[in-house]
Amino acid sequence: MSKGKEIRAAMPVEVRETEAEGVKVGGYAAVFDEWADIGGYFQERIMPGAFEGRLEDDVQFLVNHRDLPLARTTSGTLTLTVDERGLYMETTLDPSDPDAARIIPKLQRGDLSKMSFAFTVEDGGKDEWDHSGDVPKRTITRIGKMYDVAVVSSPAYGGTEIGLRSLEAARAADAAENSQPVRARRMRMALALVEQG
Asked: Which segments within the chain are labelled E, that is strand?
């Protein structure tokens, strides 16, 4: 299980023409069951069902996971939905908002063109690690907490540092699980069960 906030980025953002109520922005912040390279350190995929119970979190729409929110689920200005493809976000930006006005032309030109999300797996989440191959593989089956969805300028996976800590934590847990004292205790328990049976 990982510790700390992680950030993943890759999907394109969709911008619709300016309408009377504003500029509609939407896109997939996460896609299910696709392996992604996390900084060359491990492969990762997010499984369907990973966001169950997380759409009620107070999630903000940010630029590069920073600054003031452009929209927010708790205010009703950000909508998150899950379908067979992944986690989809949608909002309508107000061109009279100086923060939105700053990014609308960049979205329309494609200068800001990718989506991302920030999350933790701890606090009720679940991930599984497979160290059997040359490159470790992580499967996230449940998100613990979701912080934000963001439009990002750099689509590379920005969570490498946290991802490395997650990998190191998984390796430490595996080492502890397979340590001599743990194995000896399991053997004693197994023998006790056999003797009782």
From this structure: 6-19, 22-31, 36-38, 42-46, 60-63, 66-72, 78-82, 86-93, 114-120, 126-130, 137-142, 145-152
The angle at the Cα of 142, spanning 174 to 112, to the nearest 5 degrees, equals: 110
> What whole-number distance in Å separates Cα of residue 101 and Cα of residue 115?
18
Nearest Cα to Cα of residue 59 among 49, 48, 69: 69
Tell me if 135 sits within 8 A of 43, measured CB to CB: yes
Nearest to 83 by CA among 144, 36, 35, 31: 31
Distance of CA 175 to the CA centre of its chain: 26
Write down the mean pLDDT value for the chain: 79
% of the chain at pLDDT higher than 70:
68
User: CA 192, CA 126: separation in Å to the nearest integer?
Assistant: 32
Largest CA distance in the chain: 77
Is residue 145 over pLDDT 60? Answer: yes
> What six digits make up the tokens of 176?
């502890």
